[in-house]
Amino acid sequence: MLGMCRGRRKFLAASLALLFVPALTWLYLSAANFTVKPLPLSPLETQSSTLVGGAGERQALELRVREVEEENRALRRELSQPPRNPTNRNYRINNHHGNQSQPHSTEEGTGDSEAQKSFSTGNSSTCVQHPVVDKCENIHVAIVCAGYNASRDVVTLVKSVLFHRRNPLHFHFITDSIAQQILASLFHTWMVPAVRVDFYDADELKSEVSWIPNKHYSGIYGLMKLVLTKTLPSDLQKVIVLDTDITFATDIAELWAVFHKFRGQQVLGLVENQSDWYLGNLWKNHRPWPALGRGFNTGVILLLLDRLRKLRWEQMWRLTAERELMSMLSTSLADQDIFNAVIKQNPFLVHQLPCFWNVQLSDHTRSEKCYRDVSDLKVIHWNSPKKLRVKNKHVEFFRNLYLTFLEYDGNLLRRELFGCPSETDHNSENVESKCLKNPVHLQLQKTLLELDEDDPCYEFRRERFTVHRTHLYFLHYEYQPSADQTDVTLVAQLSMDRLQMLEAICKHWEGPISLALYLSDAEAQQFLRYAQGSEVLMSRSNVGYHIVYKEGQFYPVNLLRNVAMRQVSTPYMFLSDIDFLPMYGLYEYLRKSVVQLDMTITKKALVVPAFETLRYRLSYPKSKAELLSQLDMGTLFTFRYHVWTKGHAPTNFAKWRTATTPYRVQWEADFEPYVMVRRDSPEYDRRFVGFGWNKVAHIMELDAQEYEFLVLPNAFMIHMPHAPSFDITKFRSNKQYRVCLKTLKEEFQQNMSRRYGFAALKYMTANNSG
């Protein structure tokens, strides 16, 4: 069948060629009478207004006619030969599925005639050929990632890979403890099907490369790609290695397919360096490490691990590095210098990849020679410390491509890979490589299926089990624990419309802060620009910003609080809201109260009395006396006294006015004060979303666990005015919203009764209005 298909194609091609030659000859004879305008090749390329006519056109056409005639003669010779053996080592004929066979990933634009010949196929479905990369073949990707910034940058790379991919992926991250915490949480909550993630401790590898002096901005982590043969599993045969500043513009399976082009002892797939760095002519006395020609860039590497191990790669690169360091003293481009020195001595090791597999956007790049059209682009590498600010005549196009993935909704990448017998869905460390679903995700799916979609409150119930993609520590964070074990973290949550409160809170609270921000991918980048442009926020390194990405129709207020609480590293936490400004000095006052009230051995919730102002411009009181004065003048009010008195009435503001020592208050229905508690206190109940009962239920839980509520006599916080939230508007205007909230309250109270028995009966009989 294959021979018949080839015979038909050859006969058709020969016929077309025979018809084409006379037509082209006629065009040649009459060419002098026409002026031809060029077609636009690319949005990246400046067009010429006209082509040179006359003699230049005749010469070009004569050349083209000779080329076509030569191709025609070659085709006749091929037709006269007997059919070749249909076996092709690069492709398989899949006769098991017929026309129902699934599409396979293909390698395109490899820069040689072999690929183009391989991909020419007929129209008949029986002649469909498949490349070496099966649709369900796992593709392994290794990335070195360390620190807060790199953990944020690598997400854009991962998005670009996931966007184009059609194969299961297995990411191998070599990370420090910071990046592992961030990425493990991100992938666990991302829940992308057919993606597995494993982590390898970079700190354990430091001794392998710490002896190499390195001037590159990547530091010691920029040398760790040298030890991947030792780090990755011994049964892993090949892997694609990527820098974090890479953006994919095609399916990564096309790059994976290049492995089949390796010949002989080739073990490294690399793209030539696209600057003159290794030529040594960038500036006077520039002395780079030895390299083969222009050298090779290591932002994208194809590693045949099994062959490298047989070649004793570890010994090879170490001996080379030791010898070169005797004269070079240090590396300038980290692992890239050592890779190139090894290749200089052993050129047979490298398989040169076409340059579009690593289009390098450094200051001195010659990358524009790699592409003529957008379709040529495969991988973009922002390999300059300037990143998106690098100078390049096409940088706007590349920047827009990068920004597309930067702001792309990552939730849309949770798509299944259909047609595979089983899918990898592991997002945990050091788990066996089995194609099974994550048990947590399976239980979640089962729970969701058990919900009644006809229930009027279905959306409320579903939100409780929705897994929101979460990126912890979106910005750099530093915290040094206090020796006296009295430290307190302020905990709050917010959305995009409350960003303006951040600077004010940082001025009022000098201690550590843990914030959960509910944002879309695009809003997260807006927040990043806002924070990086704020001197106040950039001067604070003890503020943890945790992004919870938007999904669903409700504001998951209690989930956000829980996310922020889980990242508290101090012994105590002050549970606040973003609209409140704590009094100046509250941080130190709470720390002293920890000692005075012996909070280490008793369950106490220290109540900070809440007030509010209706004025956007407020002269913030510097003491309790000033606050009482403004309270008497009507500038301040007790919080929500006019719309929700019960929420803070048990605080007993009349007693607080004259109190000089902490005093105990009893729980009452609908009590929702702002409190400081120990870090191990219970979390908020996730069933309450949007507006209503989210704090009330938490305070009820504290009371059920026998926490003692103590009001602090010299502490206060003030609520600043703002426009009504979308959720409170829904609560007021939507009857079904209020009905569902009442149903959830009753279910919560019943759960409390079952959990705490007779002591919880008071919650069943309490007034549930509001």
UniProtKB/TrEMBL annotation:
GO biological process: protein O-linked glycosylation via mannose
Biased composition (Polar residues): 86-104
Main subcellular location: Golgi
Transferase in keyword set: yes
Protein name, UniProt field: LARGE xylosyl- and glucuronyltransferase 1
PANTHER family: GLYCOSYLTRANSFERASE-RELATED, XYLOSYL- AND GLUCURONYLTRANSFERASE LARGE1
Pathway annotation from the record: Protein modification; protein glycosylation
Membrane topology reported for the UniProt record: Single-pass type II membrane protein
